[in-house]
Amino acid sequence: MTQTTPTLILHNASQLLTLSGGPQRGSKLGSLGLIEQGAVAIQGERILAVGQSDELLRAYPGAARYDAGKNVVMPGFVDPHTHLVWAGDRADEFTLRLQGKSYMEILAMGGGILSTVRATRTASLEELVAQSRPRAWAAFAHGTTTLEVKTGYGLTLESEIKQLQAILALNAEGPLELVPTFLGAHAVPQEFQGRTDAYVDLVCDEMLPGIHAWWQSEASGQPLPFVDVFCEQGAFDVAQSRQILERALALGFPLKIHADEFENLGGAALAAELGAASADHLVKTSPEDIHALGNSGTVAVALPGTPFGLNEADYTPARALLASGALLALATDTNPGTAWCESLQFMLALACRKMGLTPDQAIAAATINGAAAVNRQNAIGSIEPGKQADLLILDVNNYRHLGYRFGTNLVSTVIKRGRIYPVSPPAP
């Protein structure tokens, strides 16, 4: 065993869930890599060693210790699909939905995404950061240590850059680590109503090159943001989505796609064809598209909070995706219209009840497979030597409480990059 001295040994875990071995496909989903009475040796921001508590305590007798209290220790959650940065709210639209108006009907009335666009365009950068900061902390306190964030509430180059600035500012503040995504093709802005092709041309010819140039100037050295598109009836069709994603790919951007939330248009197969990191929503995905995902490296990201928020019956067909051999991940879709919920713990509970996952499978989908959905599986998502020391201590001694319980926070402590953040009081 290495003689490097760790800065900390986290020990006395009832169950240490390592999730080791990389992203988990199909029937292999749910391999937790469980170590009874486990421990983790941390050196600075990274994991040095993993094993049983008595083994690591003997190996490093002089290291500082942190007692997990015979509770579960696991990787931090990775949330690969959110819209965390926005201004205002859409509480009034919730009433409209309860009265029978559909999501797309509200959007056609100028509400929905377009309502949040108006509020976000008028908000200052400082206001955007201030309104989004509590949501970032709520996600972190519930165990999310890395979280993807999309733009898409500006729909002009200037306003989209303002959202990227807010994402970068919040990421710099920490402790939550943010992964940015440019979603200029989230909706057709009101000034382009009836001229969707013209807006697609604007995204391809001006916004994507503009974002690329701005990023190289203001965020040099950081990976380019993802580029996403809302491929859906009433938003952007497959041909328009292809145009945007192929232009983004030519500029060097990694790809994502919103697909099959309300209608099956073929967006998931497009994502698989283009090598996108993920295809997200996938509620109405056809067997043909499921087969395409199962034969690709594109992660299928389920967002169970969205049909729950919309009070809809259909959820992502997880069993069919797993049977195809697909990579399956879970995300919150935190947004002001359909799923204002920052807790991946609640998504695990929904996935177990509405998608047929076991707690083991849901945990893997929310950790190592979530990391794969943002191309960071080699750095986060599991507890393995060399990886970033992003860990959770739960306030329970059996991991199956995740999924079994809901509406409460089972995380007592978050460790991000080796630093300890107590987020809830210990049990009496």
Summary keywords:
7-stranded mixed β-sheet; 428 residues; 8-stranded parallel β-sheet; single chain; 15 strands
Describe the structure.
- There is one protein chain.
- The protein has about 425 residues and is of the alpha/beta class.
- It is built from 16 helices and 15 strands.
- The chain has helices spanning about 55-60, 90-100, 105-110, 115-120, 125-140, 155-175, 195-220, 240-250, 265-275, 285-295, 305-310, 320-325, 345-355, 360-365, 370, 400-405; strands at about 10-15, 35-45, 45-50, 65-75, 75-80, 145-150, 175-185, 225-230, 255-260, 280, 300, 325-330, 390-395, 410-415, 420.
Strand line-up of the largest beta sheet = 5-6-7-8-9-10-11-12
Structural class: alpha/beta
Number of strands: 15
Helix content: 25-40%
* Unreliable residue runs: none
Q: In percent, how much strand structure appears in the residues? A: 15-25%
Separation of termini? Answer: 37 Å
Return the average pLDDT rounded to an integer: 96
What is the radius of gyration?
21 Å
Shape, principal axes of CA atoms? globular
Largest sheet: 8 strands, parallel
Count of helix runs: 16
